[in-house]
Design brief:
Layout (H helix, E strand, L loop, with lengths): L3 H10 L1 H33 L4 H16 L2 H11 L9 H26 L3 H9 L4 H16 L1 H14 L11 H12 L2 H30 L5
Helix pairs in contact: 2-3, 2-5, 2-8, 2-9, 3-5, 4-5, 5-7, 5-8, 6-7, 8-10, 9-10
């Protein structure tokens, strides 16, 4: 193994690029978490439609994107679409691909939480003349989101970690920069160990924030 001095020297030299890559990672993870969250709510709403065609199509969407490996979807969009004269930059491919994938998972989490609700509330609201959109916005969604915080938090963590694969479609994020550092001096263990520690730190921050949210949303015991 090479000396730590050599590794530290190369690390400092490439620090601006590494920090830029880290910003790209955080930016991508934040964007896909937000877009996947809101699209997931919309997809979940469609699963409750009274129209069987819409419900079946929505469930097919969820099954398709949960079943398809994310890397295959990204490769299909980035390397496959150009054969049909559709060319998208790596960031756009990452955002679209991740959003479609994350939304499917989030919708599935929300649907699971929905199945655990007390449906007497919905029946009572219907009897009082509430519209389906009002029931969803005022009764269903708030409770479903509260019960889904742990699952949604795990998804955000997954988004952060999974973002490391986008270097395969030429998007220069944090992991890509750390690979470049490793290839500079061939001290792969040190570079990847540092990479793992940074991801662990970021995940820990997300977990702490999520726990705070859970405490704020928790229903006080009688």
């Amino acid at each position: 193994m090479g000396s730590w001095g050599t590794f530290e020297r190369d690390l400092l030299e490439q620090m601006p690029l590494i920090l830029a890559g880290l910003v790209n990672t955080l930016q991508l993870a934040a964007i896909i978490s937000v877009t996947g969250f809101f699209l997931g709510i919309f997809v979940f709403y469609l699963t409750l439609s009274k129209n069987s065609l819409i419900r079946n199509a929505t469930n097919a969407y969820i099954s398709f994107f949960i079943g398809m490996p994310l890397i295959v979807l990204l490769f299909l969009m980035y390397y496959g679409l150009p054969q049909w004269d559709v060319r998208l930059n790596p960031f756009t491919v990452a955002v679209i691909g991740f959003t479609l994938n994350v939304a499917a998972y989030n919708a599935a989490y929300l649907k699971t939480a929905f199945n655990g609700l007390d449906f007497s509330q919905i029946e009572a609201a219907t009897a009082q003349g509430f519209k389906s959109s009002q029931i969803f916005r005022l009764i269903t969604l708030p409770q479903v989101l509260r019960n889904s915080v742990p699952a949604l938090t795990n998804q955000v963590i997954g988004n952060l970690k999974d973002s490391s694969i986008v270097f395969l479609i030429q998007y220069t994020e944090f992991f890509a920069r750390m690979q470049q550092l490793a290839s500079t001096n061939f001290q792969f263990f040190k570079a990847y160990l540092l990479t793992a520690l940074v991801y662990l730190l970021l995940v820990s921050v997300i977990v702490l924030v999520a726990r705070n949210i859970e405490k704020r949303l928790a229903i006080p015991s009688a």
